[in-house]
Write a structure and sequence with these properties.
With 606 residues, this protein is α+β, with helices and mostly antiparallel strands. The protein has 21 helices and 23 strands. Helix content is 39%, strand content 28%.
Length: 606
């Protein structure tokens, strides 16, 4: 991504922040002060309404010319939403975030010095967030200002880390995917490659474990192999993703070029090290088709009649207001009917063939016919029940309103992708929930507790952790069997869940142990009241195996922050209090008593 480096000059109010510099909007076409103010106000409103964060920073350099800090001089409202930093206008990043990583300051300093924009993705560890950032110099070099346009992509990054290599089932789905995927570790050895990816490496023996550079140089000319290796190393070292929509590759054992739409990303491997994953699709057929069409009419005709992709030429029909309302098929190739299911389409309009065709298709082809700009897109034709991967470009004179369309029916691929996504969601649910009760399991509980602690640290809100263990459950297993024991656990889980608040979290740790998080407590007695309520609902008789049985519970309660300031300490304290409840006769609630409350040792229970 590149920008011409010119500032739009807008200033942005952000909450209680106010810009101190006067706006300097470019008003070459504005002839009076009132119009200039209106234009400035429009720009301000536009950028302040953006969902993406936008700000202007002023670099601070030391005497040696090294970037050491930067000051926020302009920002829009979204900056606070994306960073959770408020009241930063006029302050430096080191004042706001003393532990800011130096590389952020160095990167923006380089943009200010070199005048070259940069696009990158990186993690801000103090903020525990990932950002997709585009930075470019603003104004004259003497001002040392840099404009930033960025988005918080933390959720996306976390999701990617969670689903990647989640399970063998997911790996099997990747193996069946129509796109090629291969993985290179930090030592630049190929560690994974699905069947679609192995096709690019041809007949190379012992592919897994092979040196990546050596494999590429065996297949491709040195110049191309070196460039791919250079980009991969940059991705590994910087984390910057790389997308090559049309990589041309001529193998050493072949005469013609092959084309790939490929992307490189850095990922975290199971051993904690970084690696590079490459996703690619062989788009050779599409590219060859486009090239052949451009070379000559004769080659075009041969390709037109023989390619496997659908191909047609449309004449777009406009109404009196120059709005596209229909289009006519003036040429189609033999594959057209197979991809669309439309028979005898030549010479007919699409509305004659598909009466409820979506207006989107008129607009898409109409825009290509009017502007001459080619368009590549994937969309769903609901009226035809198919997905299409489409490349459309104008042919002939502009007033002919003709558009050539090269397309593929990708319905099967889209269904496979949908099935893959559903499988990933299902796998993630199984990985985070107890199979018997449907409650969150220990993994999800610990993640949730970590998040609740972080929120409590930020906002100073107390909360409680309850550790519940059933009394008398073993006897039910021994007397009635494990099936009855399972039925008791399911019923207890149902009662506990119905007795807690919507904001509370209930999980099954293992066996007959349950834990709960009670956030946003206004009074300590709220935790006590809820715990007593849980004792009552658990002790009610339960019908199993044609009879009724009864169990009771012992509950330990730990309070944040008096009984612990981190998840492990809180859980251990609640567990200790639960065992004290058992020692006190069971069917009881025990609290951890702090020094301030009991004058005793920290961790004492009551």
């Amino acid at each position: 991504m590149r920008d011409d480096g010119k500032s739009n000059g807008a200033s942005f109010p952000a909450g209680d922040d106010h810009v101190t510099d006067e706006p300097t909007c470019d008003a070459n076409d504005v002839r009076d002060g009132a119009s200039e103010e209106a234009l400035t106000a429009s720009y301000c409103a536009l950028f302040d309404a953006l969902d993406e964060a936008f700000c202007v920073i002023e670099m601070v350099f030391d005497d040696a010319g090294a970037a050491v800090d930067y000051r926020f001089v302009e920002l829009n409202r979204a900056c606070g939403d994306h960073t959770d930093m408020r009241g930063v206008l006029g302050r430096t990043i080191r004042e706001v975030q003393p532990d800011v990583e130096p590389r952020w300051i160095e990167t923006y300093g380089e943009v200010a010095r070199s005048g070259e924009p940069i696009r990158f993705i990186d993690q801000a560890q103090p903020l525990r967030r990932w950002f997709d950032v585009y930075a470019w110099p603003l104004g004259s070099p003497a001002r040392q200002r840099v404009a930033l346009h960025f988005t918080d992509i933390t959720e996306r990054k976390v999701a990617e880390d969670e689903v990647r290599f989640r399970s063998e089932q997911f790996h099997a789905l990747v193996e069946q995917a129509p796109i090629g995927v291969y993985l290179v570790d930090a030592d630049f050895r190929i560690v994974e490659a699905n069947p679609a990816a192995r096709s690019i490496f041809g007949d190379l023996p012992d592919l897994i474990g092979r040196d990546y550079e050596e494999a590429l140089r065996t297949l491709w000319p040195k110049r191309l192999a070196d460039e791919v290796v250079r980009v991969a190393r940059r991705t590994l070292s910087t984390g910057m993703s790389h997308h090559e929509p049309e990589l041309a590759a001529v193998r050493t054992d072949r005469e013609h070029a092959e084309y790939y739409d490929c992307r490189l990303d850095r990922i975290r491997l199971p051993d904690g090290s970084n690696g590079v994953v490459c996703y690619f699709i062989d788009i050779s057929a599409q590219v060859w088709a486009r090239h052949a069409l451009a070379v000559s009419e004769s080659r075009y005709r041969t390709l037109f009649e023989s390619i496997d992709e659908g191909f047609c030429i449309l004449q777009v029909i406009f109404d009196g207001d120059d709005r596209p309302v229909d289009y006519r098929y003036v040429e189609i190739n033999p594959a057209f009917e197979r991809h669309t299911g439309l028979a005898q389409a030549l010479g007919r309009t699409v509305t004659e063939l598909v009466s409820d065709i979506e207006p989107f298709w008129f607009d898409a082809y109409g825009a290509v016919a009017l502007t001459g700009e080619p368009k590549r897109f994937v969309d769903h034709a609901e009226s035809m029940g198919r997905w299409f991967d489409v490349y459309a470009f104008r042919i002939g004179e502009p007033d002919e309103r003709k558009v050539a369309v090269l397309f593929n029916d990708i319905t099967k691929r889209k269904r496979a992708e949908h099935a893959l996504k559903e499988s990933v969601v299902l796998l993630r649910h199984h990985a985070h929930h107890d199979a018997l009760t449907g409650l969150p399991n220990r993994v999800l509980f610990e993640e949730t507790l970590q998040a609740v602690v972080a929120t409590a640290e930020r906002h100073g809100r107390p909360f409680a952790v309850l550790f519940l263990d059933l009394d008398g459950f073993k006897a039910i297993n021994d007397d009635f069997g494990h099936a009855s024991g399972d039925a008791v656990l399911v019923e207890v889980a149902r009662r506990l869940r119905r007795s807690l608040r919507v904001s509370d979290t209930l999980a099954r740790m293992h066996g007959d142990e349950f834990v709960a998080i009670l956030p946003e407590l206004s009074e300590v007695h709220e935790a006590s009241s809820l715990a007593q309520k849980l004792l009552a609902v658990v002790s009610d008789p339960i019908a199993v195996a044609g009879t009724t049985v009864s169990v009771q519970a012992s509950i330990g309660v730990a309070l944040y922050p008096s009984d612990g300031a981190n998840p492990r300490t809180l859980l251990r304290a609640a567990d200790t209090a639960m065992y004290q409840a058992k020692q006190n006769g069971k069917n009881a609630v025990s609290f951890v008593v702090s020094i301030a409350d009991a004058g005793g040792r920290a961790g004492e229970v009551s």
